[in-house]
Amino acid sequence: MRPPGAGQRRALALGAAAWLVQPLYVVAELLAAARSSAPYSLLDQTISDLGATTCTAIDYAHGPVEVCSPWYPVINASLVVFGLLLAVGAVLLRRFLPRRRSATASTVAWVVVGLSSVATGLVPLDRDLTLHSLVALPALLASPAALLLLAASLRRAVPWLSAATAAVGLASLVGAVAFLVTTGSPDLGGLWERLGFWPTYLWLPVVAAVLLRRART
After folding, report:
1. In the chain, is it the N or the C terminus that has fewer CB atoms within a 10 Å radius of its CB?
2. Cα–Cα distances in Å, from 54 out to 7, 50, 126?
3. DSSP 8-state secondary structure symbol assigned to residue 32
4. How many other CB atoms sit within 10 Å of the CB of residue 117?
């Protein structure tokens, strides 16, 4: 691979940085959960409960759930900031992926994930539960798709990274499907939703680091 020029190096550095910081979102979520004034379960309650701007009860299909999250600004701001970074990083890093349709499709999917995350942070569930659910759904569906498409694009270029990314994508897919199937249940919703989303935040830094290394050799 030819070493990138100055402009490409800048795009590579910025794009990689945008993906390398993604695990900080998970840190923000865990801190907000720890500071919840109402009892909060990472296993059973949704991420969105941490973004509620008031101490109230959310009328879910399985019954009302009390929420009170003093750190809601951190969660909602994190959804916006890290969503933007995810989308921008995907666009900047596209040129460092193989020239395959799956790479372009994965980039589009990452942009969908990022914009959906931004919208989710801007529309807390206690303001409009229906709209919040609608804007959050694309991220849940596109996250595993983006991972699997990214894996397909890397299949020949970096086989081990492709296989690992596919495994992460399958885990995300299991979480997303399980979350949607058990939406009416009060149990394990938080576990399945996090399995749907967290692989993205935790795995993209690995992909970014590999792309950085490959571009510099």
Report:
1. C
2. 46, 10, 7
3. H
4. 28
